[in-house]
């Protein structure tokens, strides 16, 4: 992969980690597409902010309409980027949505909606961009995971945790399947940042009105307690920009040296420890079955 300026698309980049990373990557000299949905409606102000930032800093920060819930939208965004920028080097799977509440209270359809955004959204994007990355024989797929999929798991966040675990699992399998096309994979794993993004503010809830009260009798105020205790655990210097910095560091690392997984977890919920074992087992097993070359592009077949 060319280690100079890259063309990068970040999904869900109107707020939070995505917006910060888009700006940091643009300042680092890359052409960055901050992809957002509803760019002419609800997110029009975010588009204007990005434009203002680009002109204030003289950087190549652009926006593109992209709703991860729609294959049509994802395909159109990909076509726009390829036509405008003439290529694409890095895709950042960042769009996500959290819900909170007792697990039983979510209808299957509500659970499906959480998977749709956090899991199936990445598949829509991959099916649009990977043919291009495979054809050019280089690229980076950077997934924004979550420590929740392997670290300490507080209750009332199950649909989101399950979706992020599914996304992580997809990322791990994809990594091996893309390596022989020269495509690298990195998973940036943030811990809980209760401020500085819209993650907790915009979190959804189950719509039904019978199960929740039954749980409230035994677990009164639990959700607020969980959020509060997570916030209390965070050290004073925990800053969301650490996640953007980690994303920049991965993108800027030379081809072949990018880490498979990077944790940014000021709370230290234990995910890093579990992932270290899981990723080691994966590497050992692929090696045992003679597929060590799938661990990263450029690794010699065993
Ligand atoms: P934000 O809510 O600020 O960012 C999420 C972004 O995703 C929003 O801008 C949202 O846009 C966008 N999005 C949601 N649905 C769609 C969609 N259908 N199409 C396109 N964009 C969509 O929170 P964060 O910055 O915290 O979240 C970014 C990523 O980080 C997520 O994947 C999240 O799971 C992950 N993460 C967050 C942690 C935290 O504690 N903050 C911890 C670990 C991981 P819109 O406003 O239009 O809905």
UniProtKB/TrEMBL annotation:
Query: Which InterPro entries does the protein's record reference?
Result: NAD(P)-bd_dom_sf, SDR_fam, SDR_oxidoreductase
Q: Which Pfam families match?
A: adh_short
Coiled-coil features, chain-numbered ranges? none
Origin superkingdom? Bacteria
From the UniProt annotation, give the residues forming the signal peptide: none
- Describe the family membership recorded for this protein in Swiss-Prot or TrEMBL: Belongs to the short-chain dehydrogenases/reductases (SDR) family.
Write the protein's name.
Short-chain dehydrogenase/reductase
Task: Name its species.
Answer: Streptomyces camponoticapitis
Lineage, uppermost ranks: Bacteria, Bacillati, Actinomycetota, Actinomycetes, Kitasatosporales
